[in-house]
């Protein structure tokens, strides 16, 4: 499980960003969301604070969290 936060400030597109606590782009002004096993769960909770939220491309990207297996 990772600890998640949502930024209080909006980005260029007017959305609040959800970050893991270990993110390189972790915002100083944020709201603690709690521990979650998936970013999707943190996004759901963040929508309780702000209607327009999205995940951080650096720490919560779906592609970064997937494990790819190449049998070759």
- In spatial order, strands of the major sheet run 3-1-2-4
H/E series, N to C?
EEEHEH
Radius of gyration: 13 Å
Mean pLDDT: 87
Q: Flag low-confidence runs.
A: 63-70
Tell me what portion of residues adopts beta-strand conformation. Answer: 25-35%
Tally of domains: 1
Structural class: alpha+beta
Helicity, as a percent range: 10-25%
What does the overall shape look like? globular
Please count the beta strands (DSSP E, at least 2 residues each).
Answer: 4
Number of helices: 2
Distance between the termini: 31 Å
| Main sheet characteristics | 4 strands, mixed
Kindly describe this structure.
The chain has 72 residues and is of the alpha+beta class. It has one domain (2-65). The chain is built from two helices and four strands, in the order E-E-E-H-E-H. It has helices at 39-46, 62-65, and strands at residues 2-7, 16-20, 30-36, 53-55. A four-stranded mixed sheet has the order 3-1-2-4, covered by helices on one side. Residues 63-70 have low confidence and may be disordered.
In short:
The protein is built from 2 helices and 4 strands; from the N terminus they run βββαβα. It has 72 residues and is of the alpha+beta class.
Please describe the structure with a list of short key phrases separated by commas or semicolons:
single chain, 72 residues, alpha+beta, 4 strands, disordered C terminus
Record the SSE blueprint.
Layout lengths: L1 E6 L8 E5 L9 E7 L2 H8 L6 E3 L6 H4 L7
Parallel strand pairs: 2-4
Antiparallel strand pairs: 1-2, 1-3
């Amino acid at each position: 499980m990772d600890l998640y936060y949502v930024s209080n400030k909006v980005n260029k597109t007017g959305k609040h960003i959800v970050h893991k606590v270990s993110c390189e782009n972790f915002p100083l002004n944020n709201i603690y969301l709690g521990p979650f096993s998936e970013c999707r769960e943190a996004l759901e909770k963040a929508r309780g604070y702000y209607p327009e939220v999205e995940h951080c491309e650096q720490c919560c990207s779906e592609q970064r969290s997937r494990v790819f297996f190449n049998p070759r």
